[in-house]
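Deliverable D5.2: sample structural annotation.
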Amino acid sequence: MTTWSRQDVAGFLAAAGMPANRINEFVAIAVCESSLDDQAVSPADAIGLWQVIPSTAAGVGFTRAQMFNPRLNAIAAVRISGHGA
């Protein structure tokens, strides 16, 4: 288990292409969803910082296992959100 700082999580989002004006909002979502624990798994099998469901991850090009990687979870979150739209 790794619990990341808000600054680290913001960096993952920025590197994933999240618009700067949406980063704080998406950091707050990760705080609520996972307490910034990249190994968090919900009872519904949602995974990682942004609690991505495996079937949704697959729809944006990732496997279930990849959702435990915070950088890939951030990319998935950015894609799922329509790039912060």
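Annotation notes: Residues 60 and 79 are 7 Å apart (CA to CA). The longest helix spans residues 23-34.
The annotation will be released with the project's public dataset once the embargo ends.
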